[in-house]
Amino acid sequence: MNVAKYIDHTILKPTTLVSDIEKLCSEAKEYGFAAVCVPPPFVKKAKELLQGTPVKTATVIGFPFGYSAIEAKLAEVVLALVDGADELDIVLNLIALKNNDWQYLANEINHLLPVIKEKGKVIKVIIESGVLTDDEIIRCCELYGAAGIDYLKTSTGYAEKGASVHAVQLFKKHLPPQVQIKASGGIRDYAFAKELINAGATRLGCSAGVAIVKGEQGTGSY
C-alpha cells in the first residue's frame, strides 16, 4: 500500500524541542511521508530542514481547543503563511458548535479560508469527531464541504476519543468528492491505519508514523 505517502508525521506537544523537529523532519525525508505537522513556532525551522524535498510543512491553528477568537486565528494563519506553511490544520470553534451557533462557524471559515486560498495553500478543518454526534458530523460535512476546504480532519488527538472508522465513513458519505479526509488521533499501528485508508482517509495524522511504516514492512504487503 505504501502507507508512508498518506502520513502527516506529527509532533504537537507543548514541550517540543528543536531536536525533536530535526528528528521529525529527518524521518519524514527518510520514509517519504506526505508532510510534517509541527507547532506554529517551528514552521520556519521545519521549512528550512525540508527545503528541496517533496515533504510539505503543516501546522495547526487554534490548537487544540478551537475556541480562540476569529481574529486570533486569523493572526495565526497570517503568521504561519509568512513562515512558509504549506498546509494549515484549523480547529473549529467547538463551543459554537455545541451551542448550535452554525452562523458563527460559517463566519469563521469565511474569514479564514480566503486568506489561505489566496496564497495557494491547503486548508484542513479539525472537527473533533470523537465528541460529536453523527448529526453534528453530518452538518460539519455540509458546512465545510460547501465552503470549499481541502480536507476535513477527525481529531486533534487531545479529546478522549480520536479517529474512528465510523467517523471516516460518515465523512466519505456526506462530503463532496473533492474534499479529502484526514484521520488523526490514536493511530498507532499499521492495521488501524489501513482500516482508516480503506474507509476513505487520504491522510493520516500520527506521531507513530515510523512504527506504522515498519508495521507495514513487517506484513510483507509492499
TrEMBL record:
<dbReference type="GO" id="GO:0016052">
    <property type="term" value="P:carbohydrate catabolic process"/>
</dbReference>
<dbReference type="GO" id="GO:0009264">
    <property type="term" value="P:deoxyribonucleotide catabolic process"/>
</dbReference>
<keyword id="KW-0963">Cytoplasm</keyword>
<dbReference type="InterPro" id="IPR013785">
    <property type="entry name" value="Aldolase_TIM"/>
</dbReference>
<dbReference type="InterPro" id="IPR028581">
    <property type="entry name" value="DeoC_typeI"/>
</dbReference>
<feature type="active site" description="Proton donor/acceptor">
    <location>
        <position position="182"/>
    </location>
</feature>
<dbReference type="InterPro" id="IPR011343">
    <property type="entry name" value="DeoC"/>
</dbReference>
<dbReference type="Pfam" id="PF01791">
    <property type="entry name" value="DeoC"/>
</dbReference>
<keyword id="KW-0704">Schiff base</keyword>
<keyword id="KW-0456">Lyase</keyword>
<dbReference type="GO" id="GO:0005737">
    <property type="term" value="C:cytoplasm"/>
</dbReference>
<comment type="function">
    <text>Catalyzes a reversible aldol reaction between acetaldehyde and D-glyceraldehyde 3-phosphate to generate 2-deoxy-D-ribose 5-phosphate.</text>
</comment>
<comment type="similarity">
    <text>Belongs to the DeoC/FbaB aldolase family. DeoC type 1 subfamily.</text>
</comment>
<dbReference type="GO" id="GO:0006018">
    <property type="term" value="P:2-deoxyribose 1-phosphate catabolic process"/>
</dbReference>
<comment type="pathway">
    <text>Carbohydrate degradation; 2-deoxy-D-ribose 1-phosphate degradation; D-glyceraldehyde 3-phosphate and acetaldehyde from 2-deoxy-alpha-D-ribose 1-phosphate: step 2/2.</text>
</comment>
<dbReference type="GO" id="GO:0004139">
    <property type="term" value="F:deoxyribose-phosphate aldolase activity"/>
</dbReference>
<feature type="active site" description="Proton donor/acceptor">
    <location>
        <position position="89"/>
    </location>
</feature>
<feature type="active site" description="Schiff-base intermediate with acetaldehyde">
    <location>
        <position position="153"/>
    </location>
</feature>
<protein>
    <recommendedName>
        <fullName>Deoxyribose-phosphate aldolase</fullName>
        <ecNumber>4.1.2.4</ecNumber>
    </recommendedName>
</protein>
<dbReference type="InterPro" id="IPR002915">
    <property type="entry name" value="DeoC/FbaB/LacD_aldolase"/>
</dbReference>
